[in-house]
Amino acid sequence: MKQKINFVKCNPTQNMTILINTMLPSDEHIRIASKIMSYDNVYAEQVGFIEPSMNQEADALLQMAGGEFCGNACMALAAYLAELQEMERHETTVFRLEVSGAEQLVACRITKNREDYRCRVNMPLPVKMDQTVLQEGGAPANAVAVRYSDFIHFVIEVEHIDANMKNQMLCLAKRIGSFLETSMLGILLYNASSSQLTTLIYVPKLNSAVWERGCGSGTASIGAYLAWKNRRNIEAHIHQPGGTMLVKALYDQEQLTQLEIEGSVGIVAQGTAFIDMDFNLSVGEGIHEISNV
Fold first, then answer.
1. How far apart are CA 115 and CA 72, in angstroms?
2. What residue spans define the domains of the chain?
3. CATH of domain 2-120+265-278
4. I need a labelling partner for 249 at 20 to 30 A (CA). Which of 59, 109, 227, 281 fits?
5. Spatial separation of the C-alpha atoms in residues 10 and 75, rounded to whole Å
6. Bridge partners of 270?
7. H helices then E strands: how many in the chain?
8. What is the distance between the alpha carbons of residues 79 and 84, in angstroms, rounded to a whole number?
9. With contact defined as beta carbons under 8 Å apart, do 20 and 6 qualify?
10. Residue 98 CB neighbour total at 10 angstroms
11. What's the pTM value of the predicted model, to 2 decimals?
């Protein structure tokens, strides 16, 4: 028996995102997400569920499948809400979203372009940043841990990336993600001279590891890292395999006070997905790896 799932598929900087607007029990989210993001279904890098919010100030609630926070999914939902409102070209509005992994409402300022939307998202601030050392296989790597209330990113400055480094980072993410109490773990490989970012996102609940073509939360963490490192405000264009995103970080009195990202998002598909009701996710079956570098 097949279950019908209504979805919209969005493209925020090629970080392909599926938003599900069929109401489903929360204990079904991981099973549904693992199937719908697979190669033999709709296929994407991440899945979020649109739900009504109990907060009267919120326009919608976005529940990511693994309970993580995702800036690009916020952009995707803002674009979908704008599409439902049939915004005119050059029109701008602000949506306030309740989002998993974020303690406060997330403001998304969105403008309609000819073929897509331009969105600016007010991102959660890290609760702490500190230096650490990571090691998997080769020589130890100096890193900066950008710690949020519900997830963590590790920034590693690199000059170049090869297959061996990617494999080491993937093994590292799975190993430390198994004992860290976090909804999402990211390893951000950053080339400071070219402002190039390559991001691995690992979601323990989904056992999902993805080399993302564009990462909103990763872009924000690079902005936070640069502001922390240089002790000043930062505005930078961060280049990624799927395109370029803008990050702005305000730094005042030895602390980060504001963090924003900006990028483009398009709606590429909308329809009905069919999920086999007999599909059961067994241990180890949920691993979802996409390599784009």
1. 18
2. 2-120+265-278, 128-262
3. 3.10.310.10
4. 59
5. 9
6. 8
7. 4, 17
8. 9
9. yes
10. 20
11. 0.90
